[in-house]
Amino acid sequence: MELKKFLSIHILCVLVFVGFIYYVTIFIFLDGSLSLQSSAGSLHALIFTLVASLCVFSFFVCVLKDPGGVPSSYLPDVEDHEASDQESKRSGLLKKQCDKCSAYKPPRAHHCRVCRRCILRMDHHCAWINNCVGHRNYKAFVTLVFYATIASTYSLIILISSALHKDWDFDEVTPIKLFYIATGVVIFGLSLTLGTLLGWHIYLTIHNMTTIEYYEGKRAAWLASKSGLNYRHLYDVGAYKNISLVLGPSMLKWLCPNAVSHIKDGLSFPTSREYS
């Protein structure tokens, strides 16, 4: 059952941590600065709850959604112009074969040692969702990081606002003061980490890359420069098209983690050669 994925220490830690951040943000920091009984306090509580709910929903989609495995019936195409004789065709097929699975894998697929199978358009394996981030759940992962960044930043702003409303005695060290400082450091670090991760995946999305392809591309670019050639990522078909391939053609659905009707089979992808 897919629900078994939640029997992970990492996922339990995430859920407990999210619950803690939500509780202290609403019932300690926000209530302490604006009061939940006020219209402003109620509005901020509603907005934060909405963002936190979207974050949790995206998290559940990431955990439960299969990232996409290679069909057992998959066979790569070996075109005549790529191989002039039987021996070179056989060599080309070997390059498309996974050593671990002893099966053929399509372009952009990679073997995950944790999942013990090849994942379509694999980005990385994430222990915090107890799942691979791949072709079918990459959009959900991007929206998860987006909503988590917004929620943590919002929480930090509420914490700072609450701290400014208090009449602190700076000559005395109290438990509540230590609590504010410790929680502020944690939420600031979380916001910074998530913001950096969001920026990274925005960059990857704009260039239609995975994390694996980025590092493979760095080596390919270095080798190309040594030969006096220019390297371009094969699947970079333009910023807007790249974004549409990941998030979907409708901007209204970009931030909906389960709006994935645009996702194809993951066995082939448009290339820059087709758009040149």
Instruction: Based on Cα principal axes, name the global outline.
Output: elongated
Strand order of the largest sheet: 1-2
Mean pLDDT: 90
Number of strands: 6
Alpha-carbon distance between the termini?
Answer: 45 Å
Percent helix range: 40-55%
Please work out how many helical segments DSSP would assign.
Answer: 8
**Helix/strand structural class:** mainly alpha
Cα-based radius of gyration, to the nearest Å: 23 Å
* Helix and strand pattern: HHHEEEEEEHHHHH
Q: Specify the biggest β-sheet.
A: 2 strands, antiparallel
Strand content: 5-15%
Extract low-pLDDT stretches: 80-93
What does this structure look like?
By secondary structure, this protein is mainly alpha-helical. The protein is 54% helix and 6% strand. The chain is built from eight helices and six strands; from the N terminus they run H-H-H-E-E-E-E-E-E-H-H-H-H-H. It has a two-stranded antiparallel sheet. Helix 1 runs parallel beside helix 4.
Protein traits:
54% helix, 6 strands, mainly alpha, 276 residues, 6% strand
SSE diagram, text form:
Elements: H1 9-33, H2 39-64, H3 86-95, E1 97-98, E2 103-104, E3 110-112, E4 117-119, E5 124-126, E6 131-133, H4 138-165, H5 175-206, H6 211-226, H7 239-247, H8 272-275
Antiparallel strand pairs: 1-2, 3-4, 5-6
